[in-house]
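hiii so um. not sure if this is the right channel but i have a protein structure encoded as tokens and i wanna go backwards to a sequence. like what aa goes where. can anyone help
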């Protein structure tokens, strides 16, 4: 609420750069008037080539209704947003060509978008290649799912140095109140 008010005050004082961030907040408003303003604002920026705005338009259309016309329109806006890491990630779920999908995920990953790095790791695993370097990269970005997958793979290696690394990771995760890490660490302490 505080950020919304800050952006709203800045926009009301004529700071145009506050309009698009405010639109992201207003898109989630319970008031229809605010959501309509957010859509109008996002459309204005999107037609000027702002990928963040195209992403917002796509997300709003997708959320708005289950109408297939809106889903098709949302896809078009996501395609326009594919130069943004989140847009590339979302668009990758719509493409059917594996090479294009991989290229989009690599593009998003190159901008440190951890869900894309995680998906690339999964693709590597499906090709029977080691996903560990990618999972470690996502771990650095604090991706919790990547941390858990990495721990699981380290434990499955059944090597002393991998088990030590898994325990160290789990200990850090427990310090961050990760309940799943607590039971995994407990299991390792009892069995490994």
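sure thing!! here u go:
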């Amino acid at each position: 609420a505080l950020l919304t008010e800050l952006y709203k005050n800045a926009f009301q004082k004529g700071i145009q750069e506050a309009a698009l961030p405010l639109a992201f907040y207003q898109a989630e408003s319970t008031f229809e008037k605010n959501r309509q303003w957010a859509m109008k604002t996002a459309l204005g920026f999107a037609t000027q080539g702002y990928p963040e705005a195209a992403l917002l338009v796509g997300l709003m259309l997708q959320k708005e209704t289950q109408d297939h016309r809106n889903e098709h329109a949302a896809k078009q806006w996501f395609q326009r947003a594919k130069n943004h890491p989140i847009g590339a990630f979302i668009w990758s779920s719509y493409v059917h060509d594996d090479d294009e999908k991989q290229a989009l995920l690599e593009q998003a990953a190159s901008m440190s978008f951890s869900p894309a790095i995680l998906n690339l790791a999964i693709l590597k695993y499906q090709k029977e290649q080691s996903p560990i370097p990618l999972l470690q990269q996502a771990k650095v970005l604090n991706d919790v799912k990547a941390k858990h997958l990495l721990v699981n793979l380290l434990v499955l290696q059944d090597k002393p140095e991998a088990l030590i690394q898994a325990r160290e990771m789990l200990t850090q995760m427990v310090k961050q109140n990760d309940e799943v890490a607590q039971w995994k660490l407990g299991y390792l302490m009892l069995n490994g």
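oh and Residues 23 and 40 are 9 Å apart (CA to CA).
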